[in-house]
Amino acid sequence: MRGDQGLQQNAVNAARGMGVRKFGSGEKVKPASIYSMFLRIFDHARTEWKSLAIALASIILISLLEFVVPQLTKYTIDTVIPGKLFGKLALIGAGVLGAAIALGILRYLSTSVMASIGQKVLYKLRNDLYRHLQRLDVAYYDRNRTGDLMSRVTNDVSILQQLISSSMMQLFTDVFTFTAIAVYMLAIDWKLTVLLLATFPFMIWTTRLFGKRIRASFRKVQESLADVSDHLQTTLTGIRLVKSFTAEDFEAERFSERTQRNMDANVQVVRLRAMYEPIIDFINFAGLAIVLVFGAWLVMKDAMTVGTVVAFIAYLRLLQNPVRHFSRILNTIQQAAAAYERVMEVLNTKAIITDKPNAIELPPANGRILFRDVSFSYSQAAHSEVLRGFNLELKPGEVTALVGSSGSGKTTIAHLVTRFYDVQDGSVTVDGRDVRDVTLHSLREQIGIVSQDIVLFNGTIEENIRYGHQDATDEEVRAAAEAANAAEFIQVFPEGYRTQIGERGVRLSGGQKQRISIARAILKNPKIIILDEATASLDTESEQLIQAALAKLLKGRTCLVIAHRLSTIQQADHIYVLENGQIEEHGTHDELLERRGRYRELYELQFPAATDSASI
Known about the structure:
The protein is of the alpha/beta class. It has helices spanning 3-17, 34-45, 49-65, 68-83, 87-135, 138-143, 146-188, 190-197, 200-237, 239-244, 248-300, 306-347, 410-417, 440-444, 461-466, 474-483, 487-492, 510-524, 540-554, 589-595, 598-606, 608-615; strands at residues 369-377, 385-394, 399-404, 425-430, 433-434, 447-451, 528-532, 558-562, 574-579, 582-587.
């Protein structure tokens, strides 16, 4: 790892080591309420108003049909049986079966419609989350783990989908049914109904008490699951390193520790539910006892018929079903609330590096880049500045090279030109315009980067080259590959440009990957090129091929070269030697050798034979 990147990573690791979970600018994000969760879900779902109307109509019809069977029961006991109305039995049976068929059809309709709405809301929310992640600045990704962010986009959003597709439908149905039945029961016998409803405040209090604890427990479940996801992402992408160090058992043990935490968190949720549901059931049985005792007393006093009591018990069960359902739905709601909080932590994060309200488009650049009194630090710790009062000029159409010890600030300079980070003091300008005053898109579309850390996507060679210019023709892609000296090895593959290269280009050699990244930069055709140790890890043959490709790439462009291998920069127009965030010396290759300063020391370390022969 390069030195100044190491300083950056140390600051990040220090924050993580202290248990700090930062999002955005580091401000604490207020936990999202269940109300705000439902409000946002509705905001996404309201465009599906026709489907919502169908679901709502189904809910109303389901609730009305729920009244039919108890009424038929009451009529049978109070009228048909005493009057021996045998002719009515077939109609009663048909009525019960008809109600059952209608309920089945309506429940299928409502469930399928809500599932469709849920998937569409999930689609919109996940896309919103991904787009927001794309807008966040590089510093955000320094502070947060990739696996955790992946878990938020996949697992957490999927949990919300479960709430929308099934639980919300059940919740709305139960609320409507509960209200309708409670009103009807009050009309039949308000005293008995009031006695029955007296048990519900205890249910509400119990639900609120356990709800907070279950939600907190589910938060731990989601966080521990994110740890598992992060560990998987890290170890599977680095499987060659794991195997080369025979660390399979070590990683398996670390994975086991994370899954153990996830298991313990899930067990805690189950225990809370195991305590909550029996309490709710006891309160429900208390309500049944009230109806049986008081109802029987009224029948014996001839104040109520047996059929009415039976119907009342049936309605009681319908009244209690929403409570039973809610005790189960509570599990989903609290799990969704915990997931929603994690999603909102990302969505509420504001990017630090953004366009100013009055930002302008950067005109086609000439390529003059000027650092003026720049100071920059990756952390707020004292004496942690990477650059202090730094000044540098990159002239249009010339190659400027930066060399120096690890941690001297070379890569940081490249990050500031692309505005991956903003300076704390001073300014960075392109053609006299501060990079903070122009739009990020217009700035970065005129800069090409070829790095030692090559990023290739799982796809074809052609797709990876075309990433530099999505609308490029096949001819332009092939021309870029030829300019990068990549066409020869590409044509050797049976499928040529349509060859699948695997994750991170695993099927290619280091030199082949680098030539594809150069072809990608050539296709982009930027005015400003940044080469960040582009040949540092290559063999001599690959380096020579890439140097030839780079010569074509750099022609007529402003180029910033960051290098450890001094053989790659001997033809540079200007070479600057950095130490501790300051320029120690500068000049051409020959001028710096003659001065016998820091550059000469670095050169002698890399080419002792050349310097010995030169001194003879």
